[in-house]
């Protein structure tokens, strides 16, 4: 039986570890902070503060499912601990679960009625829920929705004489145009709406014709580059092209989803990628990520950015075109590339992925959801998702999927990695993430992978963030989310 002295020393040790965890958190070392808070919890699991602090660290790593679990434990230990409800509410907000968030902020207000910060957050949350209810009330059933693209004729839009930016002559997007447009973007100049419409509409036509799973052939002696999340970091995208060359038929790329949101140059990123797609469809391949969706764009900044730089009509148009992005690619019949990961059941074949009707907003379950949201885990089998959507899958799941489909490797993105990449599952799975110093705070490197045929051995190139104009990440995100970031 432990003595009072040993109990006291355990409590002291847990507190010391918590202080170390807090220091790691302040240094933006969130994974390290989680490990330390976990040690403190293992010593003294009845301290609500440790659980709430770990919840906040999970939130910083976008592990909202884990954050909700930890915050729930905090309020179970101490039902009057307002920070527990606050952390859980913030995680619900980040997932777009406004009604759940509202309940938690109402509880914070009940516990701390004179806290001005709690009152402010509650008001923002109430506004968000009211807006959501209004949008639900006026929404048109999917069966009755019309294509916004079909109502736009960019040829009728006049270009003012004083416009000095990049111009598309006729219907053909040329390399000269794309270079001029990128230079304009570097100088924070906007592209004229006429040409922005033209690029997005032409990209739509190209994407519509593609299957949900696209096969890519890399001839012998030729190479192919796969990039991960870019997340609106336009100046880092330009750096990738400076390091590895512009996209062309001889230098093709695949960008593996999450082009937009969080970074505040998302419009510049998506127009650049789409313009290269128009210039040469085989020079650049684009996969859908979980952030190419209305719900994410509403919260994480792309919708606000497009409204600010272009117009409401473009918000609708991008939402429509994102639904046409393919969900997965197979390179040389051997490498499976997907944004998130694998599936909740064994036996999924490539033919099942080809058969997905992708022309919709991502559902909350099923193959399409799992493709966009799942993450690998070190343990075998399957587990709940850290994010609260999709699942976690082990190396045995990866090996069975590869064997069932006669493939060699899974390449996926979706997660920040300190070195820009991580090799897992006995070398059978590589995560690649191409947004260095993510959100101007994570301190991570970015990476891309080059494959050369016929061996198709992955060669990973890492790079650091480059300077960008003084526009903060999330500058266009929802008010209530910026309050928590």
TrEMBL record:
Instruction: Give the membrane topology.
Output: Multi-pass membrane protein
Q: Which cofactors?
A: Mn(2+)
Its GO CC terms are: endoplasmic reticulum membrane; nuclear membrane; nuclear speck
Domain called Serine/threonine specific protein phosphatases: residue spans = 191-467
The catalytic site is made up of 291 (proton donor/acceptor)
Report the PROSITE patterns cross-referenced here: TPR (PS50005), TPR_REGION (PS50293)
Q: Does the keyword Manganese apply?
A: yes
Self-association state and partner proteins as the record states: Interacts with PHYA and PHYB, mostly when they are phosphorylated and in Pfr forms.
The record's family statement is:
Belongs to the PPP phosphatase family. PP-5 (PP-T) subfamily.
Q: What is this protein called?
A: Serine/threonine-protein phosphatase 5
Q: What organism is the protein native to? A: Lactuca virosa
């Amino acid at each position: 039986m432990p003595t009072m002295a040993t109990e006291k020393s355990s409590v002291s040790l847990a507190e010391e570890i918590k202080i170390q965890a807090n220091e790691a958190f302040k240094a933006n070392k969130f994974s390290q902070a989680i490990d330390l808070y976990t040690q403190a919890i293992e010593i003294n699991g009845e301290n609500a503060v440790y659980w709430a602090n770990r919840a906040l660290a999970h939130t910083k790593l976008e592990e909202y499912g884990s954050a909700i679990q930890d915050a729930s434990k905090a309020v179970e230990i101490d039902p009057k601990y307002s920070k527990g409800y606050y952390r859980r509410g913030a995680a619900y907000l980040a997932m777009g679960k406004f009604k759940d968030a509202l309940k938690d902020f109402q509880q914070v207000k009940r516990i701390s009625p004179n806290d001005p910060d709690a009152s402010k957050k509650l008001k923002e949350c109430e506004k968000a829920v009211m807006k959501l209810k209004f949008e639900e009330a006026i929404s048109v059933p999917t069966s009755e929705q019309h294509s916004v693209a079909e109502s736009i004729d960019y040829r009728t839009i006049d270009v003012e004489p004083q416009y000095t930016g990049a111009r598309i002559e006729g219907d053909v997007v040329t390399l000269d145009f794309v270079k001029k447009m990128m230079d304009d973007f570097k100088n924070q100049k906007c592209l004229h709406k006429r040409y922005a419409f033209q690029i997005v509409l032409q990209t739509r036509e190209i994407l519509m014709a593609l299957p949900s799973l696209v096969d890519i052939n890399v001839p012998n002696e030729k190479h192919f580059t796969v990039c991960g999340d870019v997340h609106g970091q336009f100046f880092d995208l330009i750096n990738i092209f400076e390091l590895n060359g512009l996209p062309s038929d001889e230098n093709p790329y695949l960008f593996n989803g999450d082009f937009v949101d969080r970074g505040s140059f998302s419009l510049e990123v998506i127009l650049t990628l789409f313009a290269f797609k128009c210039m040469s469809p085989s020079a650049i391949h684009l996969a859908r990520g979980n952030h190419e969706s209305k719900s994410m764009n509403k919260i994480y900044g792309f919708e606000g950015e497009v409204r600010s730089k272009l117009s409401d009509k473009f918000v609708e148009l991008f939402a429509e075109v994102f639904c046409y992005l393919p969900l997965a690619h197979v390179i040389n019949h051997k490498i499976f590339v997907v944004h998130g990961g694998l599936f909740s059941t064994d036996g999924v074949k490539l033919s099942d992925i080809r058969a997905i009707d992708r022309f919709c907003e991502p559902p909350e379950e099923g193959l399409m959801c799992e493709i966009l949201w799942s993450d690998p885990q070190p343990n075998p089998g399957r587990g709940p998702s850290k994010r609260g959507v999709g699942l976690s899958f082990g190396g045995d799941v990866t090996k069975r999927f590869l064997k069932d489909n006669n493939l060699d490797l899974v390449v996926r993105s979706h997660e920040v990695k300190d070195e820009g990449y991580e090799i897992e599952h006995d070398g059978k799975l590589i995560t690649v993430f191409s947004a260095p110093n993510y959100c101007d705070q994570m301190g991570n490197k970015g990476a891309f992978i080059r494959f050369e045929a016929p061996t198709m051995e992955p060669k990973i190139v890492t790079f650091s963030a480059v300077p960008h104009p003084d526009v903060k990440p999330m500058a266009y995100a929802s008010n209530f989310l910026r309050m928590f970031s």
